[in-house]
Amino acid sequence: MTSTVTGFANGNLAVEARNMHVYYGPFRAVKDVSLKIKTHAITAFIGPSGCGKSTVLRSFNRMNDLVATARVEGEILYHGNNIYSNDVDPVEIRRRIGMVFQKPNPFPKTIYENVAWGARINSYKGDMDELVESSLRQAALWNEVKDKLQESGYSLSGGQQQRLCIARTIAVKPDIILMDEPTSALDPVATLRIEELIQELKKNYTIIIVTHNMQQAARASDFTAFYNMDEDRAGYLVEYSGTNELFTNPKNELTEQYITGRFG
Amino acid sequence: MATRSPAQAMIGAQVSREELAKRPRVGETLIQGFLFICGAISILTTVGILYELGKEALLFFRSPDVTLVEFFTSTHWQPAILDFGIWPLVLGTIFTSVIAMLVALPLGLATAIYLSEYASERARNILKPILEVLAGIPTVVYGYFALTFMTPLLRNLLGADNVQIFNTASAGIVVGILIIPLVSSLSEDALHAVPIGLRQAAYALGATKLETSLKIVLPGALSGITAAFVFAISRAIGETMVVAIAAGNGPKNFDFGQDPLFGTILNPFVAAETMTAHIVRISGGDLSYDSIDYNSIFAIGLTLFLMTLGLNILSQRFVARFREVYE
Question: ipTM score of the complex?
């Protein structure tokens, strides 16, 4: 693996994978991934289908636990703690490392309740109205929904639903927000709005985004990790560097072929 | 040009009017008719049953020996002396059904939540068939289970003086056990149909499994679960064999003021006859057609039908009010 992302201080380290392997039953889906994610930056994971980029993403907040056969080897260090250690509670991890999914999945509840729900189950004690408003404002959705907070989340358009899901994630005040192809189900206009929003969010959060769309990675991220599928069908990290560098001066031949559209 | 694909061949070619003409498709029409008839049969059967019930019940109410007011207000059902008050029978049915629901709804729903949200693939594969076996046991077996197991158990627990041999509690509990598979199976289907994305969203916000199950999945499945409950209540109200064997074989006639309210009238540990059990007992005896006794069972049947119909309407209102619609 070629990585030029090594030189940031430990205080800027959000989360780090060390020699991580992910298995589904006997099948190894991801092999030997090591990388450091910088705080208050946007890191994009790109690569062809089946290269394991989503699997790596889901390992960062233990969403893979929900798949009965999934198993992670190696370490993921979050503030120095291995999140896969036996005495770590995945519920606490997910509260701090939130996730936005590929398909907008608001709860079948009101817009207000969608945002308030996560905070409420995490026993938020403050002013709920205020939290809902500030979360919706941060997600650039407030002006569109402030007069219909009691309507169903499903009354919104796809792009608005996705911003609602982002607001809901923000409301539990996470450190890191994982985004699994958050714009792949959206039209180009809604996609651009989400990209602008992500730029805003990096002031307060660390963002890791999986994307199929190379242009999106190029224009919206600070760091890019390129994954590929090996001959044994396991995904591995090919190259990881600053986004500009990776797209203008790729070190690895596969990276160059992928970003110039010769495969994937 | 070497070869032309069919698609290319179409381009520029003339399409004649005949090629576009409508052609008869006999098979389509036949199948459509057949499917329509299948659907119509069940509707016609329902209409037929309603007609028959209504016709015979009308004969009953036309009789000079009974009035509508007496039917709906009297607390005595004694056909021998031409006393036709529906309340003792309705009360018997309500008792066994309510007790059955108290057993079946919590247990059935808890089973469904376990199977859908908690059980491993292996546990589910073992438990579901066992539950379905429970549903396949003939109700007459349940009837004797109530009489020879549940009743002695209740008498041991609460004292033989307090529990009669035939009683609505024992029959009701066993009817409840009988319909657990129905509640759990239908509820599990409803829980299972809630999109996986909603569960993932809840987990990603730091929800525990219990919070996800009770606050996201359960409300999402509310309409299906309500349908399961209503179906189960209708089944409990209509259940015949268990109550005929174990609940008692005579209407629990009573008089307000004379009989103690909790000691007798509302006491589940004394014998009472349900509407269904009464119909079975009367129609099993030597009844001549067109006698008032014979016609009375249609009046009871019609009352039963109206009760379940009312429940269905109520539940639809309930679902429309509280359901959470996704997508």
Answer: 0.92
